[in-house]
Structures are given as C-alpha cells and as structure tokens.
Amino acid sequence: MVLQVQGDSLVDELVMLKDVDAGLDGVIAIHSTVLGPGAGGCRLWHYADGDAAFTDAARLAEGMSYKNAMAGLPLGGAKAVLRRPAGDFDRVALFRAFGRAVARLGGRYVTAEDVGTGVADMEVVARETQHVAGLPQRAGRPGGDPSPHTALGVFVSMAHAARRGLGRELAECTVAIQGVGHVGEALAHLLHGAGARLIVADVDSNRVARVAVATGAEVASTTQVLAAQADIFAPCALGAVINERSVEALRAQLVCGAANNQLATPGDGERLARRGILYAPDYVVNAGGIINVAGEYLGWTSEEVTARVEATGARLAAVLDHAEAQGLPPHVAADSLARAAIAAGRVRAPAMA
Ligand code: NAI
Prior knowledge:
- The chain is α/β, with parallel strands linked by helices.
- The strands form three sheets. Strands 3, 4, 5, 6, 7 and 8 form a six-stranded mixed beta sheet that branches.
- Helix 4 (147-166) packs across helix 12 (312-326) and helix 12 (312-326) packs across helix 13.
- It is built from 13 helices and 14 strands.
- The chain binds 1,4-dihydronicotinamide adenine dinucleotide (NAI).
- The site of 1,4-dihydronicotinamide adenine dinucleotide has 24 residues, from helix 4 and helix 5.
- 1,4-dihydronicotinamide adenine dinucleotide binds next to helix 4 and helix 5.
C-alpha cells in the first residue's frame, strides 16, 4: 500500500492501531523498507485527533528514512505515534497491545523509545516481539541510553565543521549550547575536554548549574543563548529553533547540534546560508543514537557502534562537499543525498521496494 500524505511525502505502509480495552489508539507509518526494516521510535503524545497523529507519524517516518540512509545503516524509516489516553491508563496493557501490533508486521517495523516512552515501555513491548531496541544494555553490547552516542556524533561533526567553516580547532572556539539535558550535558563534557569555551542555557536551573560547575561554562538565559557571543550555536533542546527571527539574532558562524528538526521551515536553511552561517544538518549529525539502536538490533559490537558514530564527521564532510559542488544549502544537499541513497538501494534490491 502506498499512500499520499502531504505534498510529496509518501509512506509505503500505514497501520492503524486500535485496541479500546488496552487504550491503544495510533498509527505505525512505514516510509521505506528499501534499505532494510523500517526503524524509528514510538512516540506517546497528545494529539487533537487521528489526522494529527497520522500526519506527524508520516512526517517523522520520512525523516527516519533520511537519517538512517545518511548514517549508512541497513535500515529504512518508520515511526509509531500513539495518542496518549486521557487520565490514568494501564501502561503495561497499552504497550503489550502495541508490541502485538509490531509483531504482526513480522519485522518490517523495528521500534524503540521516543518522546513520551522509555526503556520500561520497550521491555513490555519485548514480551510480545523481538523487533524492538532501546532495551537495557548487556555487557559489551550496544543498548541502553543512546544520548552519549548522539553527543559523540555531534562532537566529531562540530570539530569537522569548525575546521572547515571557521578555519579553527574546537579549542579555539566558544560554543553556546541550548539545552544541557541528556545529549547537551554529554556534549558539554566532550567540548570541555577538547578545550572549547562554553556558554550554556537550560530551563532547568539545577542542570545548568551542574554543567557550569563541571565545565567552567558561562551561564546564559534561555532567551539570550541564541544571540550569545559564540562561534558555534549548538541547539540541543527544541525543534524549530532556527526561524525567521532567530536567524537574524544569531552571532555564531556555525550551527551544529542534536535537536531534531532545527529548521522551522526549509526557507530558514536558505536564510542561514544567505547570512554566511554554516549549517550542519541535524539528522546527519545527530544519528549517533539511532546507530546505537541499530547496533543493538543487528547484533553489532560496541566497538563497531563507536566506529560508525565516529564516522559521522566524514558523512557530514560528504554532505558539505556535495553542497559546495552543487551550490546548494547543506540541508538541501543532505536531502538529495539521502534520496539518492534510497533510490540506489531500490535499484540494488528491487524485490524489497
Ligand atoms: P532531554 O529532554 O534530556 O534534554 C533537553 C533539555 O533541554 C532539558 O534539560 C530541558 O530542560 C532543556 N530545555 C527545554 N526547553 C528549553 C529552552 N527553551 N531553552 C533551553 N533549554 C531547554 O533531551 P535529549 O535526549 O538531550 O535530546 C535533546 C534534543 O536532541 C531533542 O531535540 C531530541 O529530539 C534530540 N535528539 C536526541 C537524541 C538522543 O539520543 N537523546 C537522538 C537524536 C536527537
């Protein structure tokens, strides 16, 4: 089944999820299985209606196809979106029902944590299906919290982009980090270790104080951090942080961070380019977490996962090379390379298309 969702966004398969007794109401959107099983997390969130959940799932599934393709993973893209029941609900019943739905897909969809879900939920899913990752780590094997891997991928990408765009090593740079949660805090430690100066901001004052003490970072307010006097801006909190207003306020010459969907609109990527600010596309640099999830599912060693995460800098280099060669902004160059990788997979494996 191929469904038109919006604009030119297509999903290969759409599975509606409904189990009234278990409180399950949602959708699994499989965007592509050309490169391998559709992989992407399970989001549990409030949605106004089924259409809103469906649209979000389709958009996120397409994003996962591009992220997985650009990370060189043998995985397609998919996403599950579940509508959070109102009031109290039986979480175990809900995730068992979800696990049964994943099992029925026979491996075409691999799930993991996302916004609103956690390790405990995935352990419940694992009672029903083997097509789940994000489970507690076993010694010497990938698994567990993906955030340190995401931080490492952002760090190596930032080092490459700083050298290329600013002509400087990280030790000569000031980096403003917006959000020092799981990824931002780990990134702050890596940057501190590399000798970078840091400016940090977070709505959680305890977190920001802890990171400032540990790394000697200056603390900025959550409103000031965007316009901080820094060479590099690292969004590690929210999406859509690069928008019409913020592009004008930015003083950094490079944007490189972990947050998903940093550009409010594609036009904001063009605005960055017009201002001469280098943008390291979010889904290229923040793939460390999904690489760890892939390693867990596909049975790689921890060393292989680390090597693949460290190659994120080289993958960013390929995107920026393509952007320069074609005269494209980096976010457009990344999308075009991702689509080409999927199309090449379709040619190699027509039976899976
Ligand atoms: P998190 O929830 O642990 O950290 C986010 C931090 O941002 C929190 O400390 C929160 O207080 C702070 N924050 C929220 N609003 C803020 C604001 N207006 N200004 C400043 N700080 C604010 O999330 P995590 O896991 O660190 O992820 C960060 C971003 O990276 C998210 O956009 C996430 O989707 C993305 N991402 C995370 C991955 C991972 O492995 N955890 C993988 C790929 C992307």
